[in-house]
Write a structure and sequence with these properties.
CATH architecture of chain A: Sandwich
Largest interface: A-B, 74 and 37 residues
Helix content of chain A: under 10%
Strand content of chain B: over 45%
Number of domains of chain A: 1
Number of helices of chain B: 1
Number of helices of chain A: 1
Shape of chain A: elongated
Order of helices and strands of chain A: HEEEEEEEEEEE
CATH architecture of chain B: Sandwich
Number of strands of chain B: 11
Radius of gyration of chain A: 20 Å
Oligomer: heterodimer
Structural class of chain A: mainly beta
Distance between the termini of chain B: 89 Å
Order of helices and strands of chain B: HEEEEEEEEEEE
CATH topology of chain A: Immunoglobulin-like
Radius of gyration of chain B: 34 Å
Largest sheet of chain A: 6 strands, antiparallel
Largest sheet of chain B: 6 strands, antiparallel
Number of strands of chain A: 11
Number of domains of chain B: 1
Structural class of chain B: mainly beta
Chain lengths: 174, 176
């Protein structure tokens, strides 16, 4: 058993730590998007394909879902809610902490799947778009459910109807 | 010893067969949706030149003039008193109506006002429009969204007995 462990260590450490690379069969990252304790309840919470449905909302009056904040300014209104993202690092052999095979941090980015020139999409005050990925964190820690705040700003001038988009998250080991 | 040899062989094989090392990453998605509905906001607020309203900036404000008399006494800041001797006297003050529209196409609004309780003694007006409890009076049929100042006035006959005068004005704004 001791000999087996030493073999496992030598190969990945030599080529992975310096280059933030990993032999896929040995170690892997996973992202789960989760409901925050203070936020809107997500569909598919805890998976890599969550959904955040605000239902029907309006700038004035109506119902504001639990965990959602509505802010009205002069010509726009914003709905926001916290959610959690957890990036985990695992190795298939489960003999060693994954971070021995990779650097101890990761970079997390977010990008809109479809272009939206009308509304403003933000996470932690960082604007998202469909053309480039926005870095949310450049040195995230594995295994920690970190809270982020999603915000969508809607102009008064926009016609009523459904606003929908998908945010693609990517975590890369540093 | 044979089992250990097999395990070592297996581990080496796993690493060797795993292919070329590559940047380690993972991805996830979150689909966001909201159905945007149209809405109108209507609040009353203190005008910069008017009497200070209680609960200004809400849809249920109070204009309390305190104790006033036709002659002498104190006239509150922002209030104008006009005496039309020997018939009546009038108190007036400006106030603001703030009407906003979101996610609906409308160029203007119609604003009406109506007294909640009948008053056959005093005359209640907003601008030059007399308001009663019998029907809603149109203050404007082409109001511009945003803040608009109106002037409230109450005319009191000299013949009226001293005492409190109170009523509620119900406003309704409708997008055109």
């Amino acid at each position: 058993m001791i000999f087996a462990v030493s073999v496992l260590l030598v190969v990945p450490l030599a080529e992975s730590l310096a280059n933030a690379q990993c032999v896929p069969a040995v170690c892997a990252l996973a992202i789960s998007v989760q409901s925050d304790a203070s936020g809107l309840a997500l569909g598919g919470s805890g998976t890599a394909a969550a959904s955040m449905s605000f239902g029907t909302m309006r700038a004035f009056g109506g119902t504001v879902p639990s965990g959602v904040t509505r802010t009205v300014t002069g010509s726009t209104w914003t709905i926001s809610t916290p959610f959690d993202v957890q990036v985990t690092c695992s190795n298939l052999l489960t003999l060693l902490p994954c971070t021995l095979l990779l650097s101890p941090t990761f970079t997390l980015t977010a990008q809109l799947q479809s272009s939206d020139v009308t509304n403003t999409w933000k996470i932690n005050s960082l604007a998202l778009n469909s053309s480039t990925a926005t870095t949310l964190v450049s040195a995230g820690s594995y295994g920690v459910a970190s809270s982020y705040t999603f915000a969508l700003t809607i102009p008064f001038a926009e016609s009523p109807g459904i606003v929908s988009n998908t945010i693609n998250f990517v975590a890369v080991a540093n | 010893m044979r089992k250990l040899y097999l395990l070592v062989t297996l581990l080496v094989a796993v690493i060797a067969d795993a292919g070329t090392a590559e940047a380690t990453s993972a991805s996830a998605t979150m689909t966001v949706s909201v159905t945007v509905a149209s809405s109108v906001s209507f609040v009353l607020q203190t005008d910069a030149s008017g009497l200070t309203l209680t609960n200004s900036g809400t849809s249920a404000v109070t204009a309390a003039f305190g104790t006033m008399s036709a002659y002498g006494g104190t006239v509150p800041t922002g209030v104008t008193r006009t005496v039309n001797a020997p018939t009546n006297w009038k108190i007036s003050t400006p106030f603001d109506a703030v009407i906003q529209l979101a996610n609906q196409t409308s160029s203007n609004y119609t604003l009406t006002a109506q007294l909640q309780s009948s008053d056959s003694t005093n005359t209640w007006q907003i601008g030059s429009t007399t308001i009663t409890s019998a029907s809603a009076s149109t203050l404007t049929s082409t109001g511009s969204y945003g803040t608009t100042a109106f002037t409230f006035s109450l005319t009191i006959p000299f013949t009226e007995a001293a005492g409190a005068i109170s009523n509620t004005i119900n406003f309704v704004a409708t997008a055109n």
